[in-house]
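Input.
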Amino acid sequence: MRKLLARPLAHLPSNYRILFRQFLLRVVDFDALSIQADVVGYIGQFAGVLMMFSMIHVFFILIVFGMAPWYVEHYLIATMMLAAGLIAVVTWDAIFPDLRDAMVLSPLPIAAHTILLAKVTSSGAMIGLAVLTLNFASSLMLSTFAGAMHGSQWGFLQALAAYWFTMAAASGFLYCSILTVQGFAALLLPHRIFLRLSAILQLAAFGIFLGVYFLQPSIETPAGMAAHHNQWLLACSPDFWFFALFNQLNGTLPSTLTWLAWRAWIGLGFAVSGSAASLILCYLHTMKKIVEEPDLVPRTGSIHWAPRFGNALQTALTLFSVRSLWRSRQHRVAFAFFLAVVFAIALSWLRGQLSGATPRSMPEGFILSTFIMMSVAVFALRSVFSLPISLTANWVLRTAQLSSSEKYIAATRRMLLYFSVVPVWLVSAFLSLAFRPWHQVAAHLAVLALLGWILAEINLIGFYKVPFTCSYLPGKSNIQFVFWGFFIFIITVALPAAEFELRSLDDPFWYVCMMFVLSGAAIGLWAFNRRRASSAILYFEELPTELITTLKLISY
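Output.
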C-alpha cells in the first residue's frame, strides 16, 4: 500500500503532500498516533479490519437472507449509507479550518485553495477507503447473481459498475449533506453560538443515522414499493432513492419508480454543490473568526446550578468529566464512536419488539447483546478518560490536590458507574419489558448490574490518575489487535456465559451459585482496588518505559 500511495503523491506539490499527511493523521486518529507514526501502515490495518468485516457480512447475508434480490440490494445500500454517516460523525469538523490551522498556516505562504484541497482529499480518503473495503466482497456477490440472471458476462459488468457508482454516490450524498449543514451554520451564526450548536448537531446526526437505519420499515418486494400507502416512505428515504438509482443503472427498474431514481440524481447534485459552496465560503470568511477559538467552549449565562454527585470532590470531578465530554469535540467524537455499537444493538432489539409479538421468553441473543453493550460502554469511557483535555486542566488539578488519592480514585469509580454502567442497565431494563416471566427479567438485570460493577473495577486497576488530565503517550494503538481481541472475547467468554445464564434462570441452585461467584468477584476487585488506592500516588505525566541498551563489549 505504501508503494501504491507513494508514486502518485510524489508528483504533487510538496506543500500539498505535507498538509495531506498531517490532515490525514488528524482525521484517522486524534492522539493514538505519534508524529513519526506510520500513517500508511495504520490505514492498512484499518482497511484490513474493514475487508474482513465485509467478508463476514457477505457470509451473514448468504446464510440469513438468502438471495432475495431487492431486499439484499436495499440492505447493502442502507448499510453503506449508515457507515458513511457514522464516519461523518466521527470526522466531525475535520474538513473545516480550526484554531490550529488559523494560527499555524495563516502566516505561511500557502494558498487557501491548497489547504482546502488537502482537507477535502484527506477526509475524502477515509470515505473512499470505507467504500472500497466494505463493498469489495458484496459487489462481487451481487454482480455475480445479476450476471447469472442476465445469462451473460455483460450483465455482470453492468451490475458491477452500477453497484460501485451507487455506493459512491450514496456515501457522497450523505457526507456532502452533512458538510452543507455544518458549513452554512458556521457562516450564518456567530462563532460562539456555532461552537455550542455544533455539539448538538453532531449528537443529533448520530442519533438520526442509527435511528433511521434500525427503525425504518423495510419494503422487500416490488409490489410493496408500488403500493400507494408506501409512497410517502419512499419519497422521504434517501436509501430508497439510491436503491432505485442502482436498478435504473442496472436496467431493472420498473417505469413506475423512475421518479424515485430522479430524486437520487437531484439530491446528489444539491448536496455536492451545497457542500462545495459552503466550504469555499468558509475558507474565505471564517478563518478570521476562529483565531480566538478555545479548545473548550466557555460557559455563558448567569445560572450556575449543578446537580450533586456525592461530596464536593466527587461532584467537581464528575462535572469536570461531563463538561469535557460535552464541550470537547475530540472526546465527544471518540466516545460517540464506541457508543455507536451500544445504540446499534439497542435499536435493533427495539425494532424487533415493535414488529414482533409480545410478551415472549427471554432469548439467549438478548442476554449476549446486553453483555456486549455493557462491556463496550465501560471500556469506551475508560479509554476516553486517558485522553487529556488540556495542559491547563493538568496544572490546576495537580496543584489543587488536597485530598488523598483514594478519594480521587473513588470519584473515578463513581463516574464509571454513573455514565457507563447505569445508562446501559436502564436501556437493558427498558428493552426487557417485552419479555416474560418477570422473575427471569429481574434475575438477568441483577446479573447485568454485577457484571457492570466487575468491569468498572477491572478498568480501575492501575488507573491512578484523574480523568482527562494525564498526558498521553501516542503511538500505542493497534486496531487489528483490539478488533480481534474483542471478537475472541465474544466467542470464548460472552457466548458461553450467555448460554450458562439462560440455563441458570430456570434452575435456582445454579443461579444462586452464579450470583455468589459474581458477587465475590465484584467485592474482591473492589477491596483490591481500595487497598491499592490507599497507598497510590496520582500521576499526571505518562512517561515512556526507560530501556537500557548495552553493546556487550565487556570481556571476561
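The chain has two domains: 1-294, 310-556.
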